[in-house]
Structures are given as C-alpha cells and as structure tokens.
Write a structure and sequence with these properties.
globular; binds zinc ion; eight-stranded mixed sheet; 27% helix; Ubiquitin-like (UB roll); alpha/beta
C-alpha cells in the first residue's frame, strides 16, 4: 500500500473552463443571416486547451476513417456524424462547394455498459479544419438527442448561427446557461414556411408534429437537387394543442421541384412498428381513464422533454381537481420554460412543490418525474428504491411509465418495475394501455411520407442499424429500387452529383465522445453521480510530482485505491499504470515551458481511467493530483 502525506485537494470540481471564448459578436446578431459577412478570425484553438470537458478517447472499436475526401466542387455531400447507429446523437453535415451546414447536434444517454459516463456526443473532428465554411446550424426540435451536444460543439466550431423554432430556441438557451463561460449563442427563430439562404443551401422549414411543440422538417434546396429531411415526426391527424404535420406543404415542395426530390432523409425510429401512430387524443383519453380510476396517488415517469404529455397531465389534473408536483431537474426546467412560453397553461395552485406532496390526501396528488427509462439517478428510480426524500410508496399508488423503452434500456426498466411490484403498487406501462404514443412515424406513416415526397433516393436516419434496414424494406415494398436506398453509418459520406448518388468507401471520424458530468454545472447531479460511481467501482487517486521546468515527473506516482482493487495483489497492474502515467505526462507536457496543468490533469484522468477500464472492466473515479515543483 502506498502511503501519502499529501492532503487531497478538491480536484474533482476544480475543472474550470478556461476563458477566452465568451467573445460574442453583437455585429452578427441579426435575424437574417448573410454568410459572407462573418466567420472571420476564427482560428481554431486546441480543443482541450479550451477546457472542454470531453473524454475524446474512443470508447468502442475505432473505425477506419480518412479526413480527406474528394474535393470536387459540384457534389453534395451528406455526412451523418451520429444518429445512424443509435437513437440519439443526431448530427448531420451537408456540404456543397465551400459551404457547410449542420443539422442538429444531439447527445445520447449511455447504455448499461458505460458506467460513470453521463452522456455521449458525436465527434466533430471532421469539421475542425473547416470552421470558416460553416454557414449555420439547423436544429429540428428541442429533444436532447438533437440539442444536447450544442454546448460542447458550438464554441469549438466557432459559434456559428443557429436556426430553429421558438420552443427549441428557449430550450437551447436554457441549457446553455448551465455551462460556464459559454459563448453567447446566435439563435435565430424561424417559422414553418420560412426560407433562409446559407451559402449554396436554401432551407425551407416545414411544420411537423412530434412529441414536443415547434418541431420542424426541412426542405434543403441545393444546386444538385432538393433533399427533404423529416426531423422526428409523426402523422397525427388529431394532435392536441398544435397542427398536424403539414402534409400540404410537403406535397407542394415535391410538386414544385422540377426534377423531383433528390433524396428523403426520414425518421426510422418506429419503422418496425406496424400501422399508424396512435393519436395524442387517444393517449389523453387513456390518461383520463387511469387518473379517474386511481384510488391513490399517481406517479408518472416520462421524458422531461415530452412537453405535450405534460400538458395533458396538467389539463386532466385540473379537471379532476388534483395537484401536480414535478420532480427531476430536467423535468422542472422544461416545465418552467413551457409555462413561461405558454405551451402549458395551468391555474394558480395546480402545481405544488414536491416537498408538499404529503400535505394532501393521496387521491389528490399527481407526481410527474423523470426516469421512465430506468436511469440510475432519475427520480422514479429513487422512488422505487425507497430513496426519495418525500415520496414513500404506499399500497394504492399507481405508477405510469409513459414512454417507450429506448433499445438497450430494457433490463434496467425491468429492474425498476420489479422493484415497484414488490412494493405492492399498481404499474401501468404503455404496452398495456395506450399511455405512450410514440412521437415517431410507424411503418404506414413512413409509407405516406415516401408517397408524398416521392424521392429518388431514401436515406433512413434516426435509428439503430436494424431500424434503418426495416425502413429500407418499407421503401422497397413501395417499389423503390434497392440501389437507391442508402443504409449508411455514422461517418459515412453520401455523395450526390449529376450522375446520381452513392455511399463512398471512405469514412470520417465518428467515434463516440464521452462526456462525464464533472464541470457541467449541475452540482446536484454531479455529486450524485460521483457518489454512485464511487459506490460502484471505487476510487483511484494518483499523486504525481511534475518538474515545471522540464515537464517531467519527479519520482514515481503515488497510487491510492479505495474500493477498487486490492493493491497488494495487483502489483503488475500498478506498475503498468505508473509507466503509463509517465508516458502521458511526457507526451502532454512535451518539455514545454508553459504547461497547461488542467490539460495534463484531464489527460491523466482520461487515459488512466480508460486503461483501468480496459484492464478491469471497472471504472473507478480517478483523481489525479499534480504537485508542481
Ligand atoms: Zn424528438
Ligand atoms: Zn430524436
């Protein structure tokens, strides 16, 4: 056991973002954006030196990719950086000549094999030497899998203007507030049917119906042809509080396109579901039935971003004179925004604070919370485990899981449910009743979209590989030739020119970038995460002295394990770890005179963390402590 005399300073929360990037440029804050006017002076700085809290180590198998793709100018390139091998992480690059636009910048929540990781974002490396060519970022709607990576990418990409709908704008701005030192975003609000020109691209916005207000589809007119991007959508003929997807507009775009629509990029999430989407109106009446019949409290777990769902709950509770308490950080935040913007209307006194739920009789209380996916630190999980401060489950409670299970989360959700059944509460899941109408088009809806747009090519997007395949099969059923259906992967380059379209053999970097929440700014979550991580995999402290003149380590690093490994029996691993620490320091300081200590500390933490994970399949909390001499 290596002893130490040093007190361990609070290295965990000390990762400040280095300044220098809050240079908002008021000159460019205009609604109409002229791409030729700006994008000057954007020299790229080192990603890490800017203090972005990323762990850029590829987590899964590294893919082969090449940075250099054919440079011919009259081709349109579509490069999905994420979203084609998962539900999440949506981000697509479109490139023509010197102009680049980006569609969405989303995150993905980790699956069961990424302990300690808060979320994953797409890799933006491909764009980093093309900053002066980025004309804008278009965001289809406000779900995390479309906006979640904005705080991480936007400043690395030199803060290009964002174009999006009203609600989405508010959600992006709110999320940005949680990041220290982030630049002032240039968000331009657009309406359906608006058209904007960004370099060679003209983008026309289409109203689509989804599970959040102000969702947009896109018609992207390019010199090679028009590409229709559906965003996340469904055809609900009777949605509540908003208009159905604008079928007329879509048909008109297809009709007005002289050569027909070149390609359709369409939502594949529910390609495997037969039939049409259930209307929100139907969901609402199911909710009403459950709430009317419930003898005790109702605890509804859902996605915080399903604003439409939350709106129903509010209206129904008012009808039955019940109170609503909202719990979960993101849920509270979104409800607050939706109330402020008028997307949710509530009478005075309908909402009560979560700490007051026990002041009311059980049959008068509805609790809406996060955690329908069994997320470890979400509220529903804490309630199920008896760890919630105010809510102890009692017989007669009804728990509603009002969201479909994201593939990969099935086991955890089942665990939560088992825990709940043991407590003798009543559990309602969307499979038993229509308590969740997916926000996504099912197979018949996808056919309708294909028939409306009549594209030459189909690029299924937004889904795991099998969902894209199923979507492709649907198109084939409609007699689209197989060679016109591009089942691509993250990092694929799809190229269109006068001759037609193809997927190139080359790929760009699209490996996952892990983000762990340290420094994200939400202390509650951070502390919780740390606690859970330490409880699960222990803690590993590295104390190393570095000579600030040479940048080299002085002596061997002191290593301390708590709850991770038994040091005595792991001498070989410790030896390798010490060697790796030396290498990392040598590499990262490079004999430099001005050592960025933050950067070195992060590098040690990331690389040793990854190394220990590779060796042990455990992810202890790694705390590097650097002593400068
Ligand atoms: Zn969505
Ligand atoms: Zn989505």
């Amino acid at each position: 056991m290596t002893a130490t005399k040093q007190k361990i300073p609070g290295t965990v929360s000390s990762r400040s973002h280095s300044g220098s990037s809050s240079r908002a440029n008021p000159r460019t804050r205009k609604t109409r954006y002229n791409p030729r006017q700006k994008q000057k002076g954007g020299r790229e700085k080192s990603y890490r030196a800017r203090g972005i809290t990323l762990n850029a180590e590829p987590y899964r198998k590294t893919k082969q990719y090449k940075q250099h793709i054919s440079k011919s100018d009259d081709t349109l390139k579509i490069i999905p950086l994420g979203g084609l091998e998962e539900v999440g992480l949506n981000m697509t690059v479109m490139e023509y000549g010197r102009d680049i636009i980006i569609i969405d910048m989303g995150l993905q929540f980790p699956d069961e094999e990424m302990p300690g990781i808060d979320y994953v974002i797409p890799n933006s490396r491909y764009l980093r030497d093309k900053l002066d060519r980025i004309r804008g970022v278009i965001v289809t709607h406000g779900h995390m899998d479309h906006i979640g990576a904005i705080p991480h990418h936007i400043r690395v990409l030199n803060n290009p203007p964002i174009f999006t709908g009203r609600m989405t704008k508010a959600l992006i701005a709110k999320r940005q507030e949680e990041y220290n030192n982030s630049p002032r975003l240039k968000i331009n609000e657009v309406q359906p049917k608006d058209k904007i020109k960004l370099g060679a691209f003209e983008i026309e916005f289409i109203h689509v119906c989804h599970s959040i207000p102000d969702a947009l589809g896109l018609a992207i007119h390019t010199p090679v042809g028009t590409v229709v991007h559906t965003g996340d959508f469904k055809f609900d003929q009777n949605p509540i509080g908003e208009d159905p997807t604008d079928i007329g507009h879509i048909a008109l775009i297809a009709q007005n396109s002289s050569k027909g629509i070149l390609a359709l990029m369409s939502d594949s999430t529910d390609a495997g579901q037969p039939g049409f989407t259930i209307s929100e109106s139907k969901v609402r009446s199911t909710f009403e039935q459950i709430i009317r019949n419930a003898k005790g409290r109702i605890i509804a777990g859902t996605f915080s971003s399903l604003i439409t769902r939350i709106r129903h709950m509010v209206e129904i509770s008012e009808k039955f004179h019940k109170k609503i308490a909202v719990d979960g950080y993101s849920m509270k935040r979104n409800v607050e925004i939706a109330l402020k913007m008028g997307y949710i209307k509530a009478k005075q006194g309908t909402f009560i604070d979560i700490s007051r739920v026990n002041d009311y009789p059980p049959e008068k209380v509805i609790i809406m919370c996060t955690g329908a996916q069994g997320e470890g630190n979400a509220v529903l999980m804490r309630i199920a485990n008896g760890e919630h401060r105010y809510i102890e489950l009692i017989k007669g409670d009804t728990i509603i899981f009002s969201s479909s299970v994201i593939p990969g989360n099935e086991r955890t959700v089942q665990n939560v449910k088992d825990g709940l059944y043991k407590k003798g509460v009543h559990v309602v899941h969307y499979k038993m009743m229509d308590v969740h109408s997916g926000g996504h088009a099912k197979s018949e809806d996808l056919k309708l979209m294909l028939n409306l747009v009549k594209p030459k090519y189909l690029i299924p997007i937004h889904g795991n590989h099998y969902m894209l395949r199923l979507h492709g099969e649907i198109a084939q059923e409609l007699r689209m030739p197989e060679e016109n259906i591009f089942i691509a992967e993250n990092g694929s380059v799809i190229e269109f020119d006068k001759q037609g379209g193809r997927i190139l053999n080359e790929k760009v970097a699209a490996n996952y970038v892990m983000v762990d929440g340290l420094g994200v700014g939400d202390i509650g979550n951070v502390v919780l995460r740390e606690r859970m991580q330490m409880a699960k995999d222990g803690m590993f402290t590295i104390i190393v002295t570095i000579d600030s003149k040479t940048g080299e380590p002085v002596g061997n690093a002191d290593l301390i394990s708590r709850g991770f490994i038994y040091m005595k029996n792991n001498q070989e691993l410790l030896k390798q770890t010490r060697q790796l620490i030396r290498n990392v320091i040598h590499q990262k300081t490079g004999g430099s005179h001005a050592i960025n200590w933050e950067y070195v500390r992060n590098a040690i933490r990331d690389e040793i963390g990854q190394f220990l994970f590779n060796k042990t399949q455990r992810r202890p909390m790694v705390l590097p402590v650097i002593i400068e001499v």
